Amino acid sequence: MEKCKSKSDTLKFNRESHIAYFNKLISGMSSSYIEFTQNHLSGAYFIVSAMGVLDALDQLPFTKQQIINWVYEFQVPVLEGDKEHERCYGFRGGLHLPFTPSTAGELYANDMGHIANTYCALAILKVCGDDFSRVNKKAILNALKYYQDPESGCFQCLPCEIGYSEEDTRFIYCACCICTILNDWSLFDKEKTIQYLIKCQSYSGGFGWIPGAEAHSSITYCVVTSLKMMGALDRIPNKEALVEYLSFRPVSYTHLRAHETGRNLVCRLLLEKKKKKKK
Questions:
Q1: Among 20, 63, 109, 222, whose CB has the most other CB atoms within 10 angstroms?
Q2: Each residue of 16-28: b (16+ CB within 10 Å) or e?
Q3: Cβ partners under 8 Å of residue 247, min gap 6
């Protein structure tokens, strides 16, 4: 009997279309994105890393060196001997300041590094083959300790002293990537972070943003990868449930289901029922 062709047999990855799309994005976004200057670095990260995966960095409209020089413009300048603002160092997300600072205090109160943007900057530099000679490694690693919640072990996107920063497993992933790229884990409490991540495993086997939260595929990736970088995969409480969770995530040939709430489950079941009726 001839094997029935599935949809996956007819799907074809169009590499050239993807390259054209990313080139269009990096050449100039629409005016609706102009106001999001704080996200320019993270946007560039997705484009450059994708072109790297496609082995098409040489097809970008900018040379690797041009991209590297541009990324360094986002690095918060280090003032020698300035202990008061050492928590502020890293890479910012955008280059626009709505005012001209008159003092270092005024500058760093409104223009400081962001843990996700620091990760994105280092990743872009890595993809482009930079030698990291201009990266203020010591300042970045020293600032990292200010992002870790001393009680929970989790990380925030901005220094904890700011008081209004997000805190969840995404920023733990960023911190782990920064330490891996710079090859230095000495300046934060790794054990506390591992314990926090372990608490984030949901009853379904996957991991959530915070302890007690619903499991989510992208967050599960961040947590498992973070544990891998810290050499703690063997600390996952229920590996069998995690494998089962990941096995049941696919819902199409190209995507993973992010999460399963009651409402989404009902909608999906109704959709499947509708498909069967049509047959």
A1: 222
A2: eeebeebbebbee
A3: none
